[in-house]
Amino acid sequence: MTRPGVLRWFWYAVGGRLxxxxxxxxxxxxxxxxWKARHVLRxxxxxxxxxxxxxxxxxxxxxxxxxxxxxxxxxYFYSCAYMEESIDHRLSRxxxxxxxxxxxxxxxxxxxxxxxxxxxIAIYRQHSGD
Length: 130
Fold this sequence. Notes:
mainly alpha, 6 helices, 76% helix
């Protein structure tokens, strides 16, 4: 799996399309165990410059900090509220079929859930025989 360099990652984070050689990494980025944290990190790339601009506006520091806090909260709220749709669009933009990310994450969840149920049943049966 080939990871993009810093500049390509920033391009990807702001919505750019990556070359075909990063296809496996893109799928991993959007479907791995920590896909939600990765999404929030990518969102921060777009939110941070705006917050910096608002912080540099003239006025009392308390007011500027309040503006930055409220803007960041609203931006992160919407970013997280539409996380799955955003990921699906990102994958589609990079050449994957619509719904690919959701399907792969569901398959991984189902496999982990089946494994957890099997462990629970094994423990339950072991202790119920006592």
